[in-house]
UniProtKB/TrEMBL annotation:
Keywords, alphabetical: Membrane, Transmembrane, Transmembrane helix
Keyword Transmembrane: yes
Protein name: Polyferredoxin
Membrane among keywords: yes
Ranges that cross the membrane: 7-24, 30-46, 58-79
Superkingdom as given in the UniProt entry: Bacteria
């Protein structure tokens, strides 16, 4: 795998993971827009890269970045709602 492939895999999977996280947080018409952009990004990535390993890595890393985004958002919301310990 070349550096360019790895960089593109990372950027595309981060973008898709964040868009999927935004999809699960936002309300209706905006979540549809986020999911549509994520689908377009996935189709573009799959057309550009035909190697099976890069496609599998894209799906796995997209899921991991989605879970990381949701976890970070949950921690942020928890600390925003918890009373200050003074």
């Amino acid at each position: 795998m070349k550096f360019k492939d790895a960089l593109y895999l990372t950027l595309a999977s981060i973008g898709t993971g964040l868009l999927l996280g935004i999809f699960s947080v936002l309300k209706s018409p905006f979540n549809a827009i986020a999911s549509l952009i994520a689908v377009v990004l996935a189709i573009y990535y799959f057309r550009k890269n035909e190697r099976k390993g890069l496609r599998i890595g894209y799906v796995i890393f997209s899921i991991l970045y989605y879970l990381l985004f949701i976890f970070m958002l949950s921690v942020y919301q928890f600390y925003q709602l918890s009373p200050a310990s003074a």
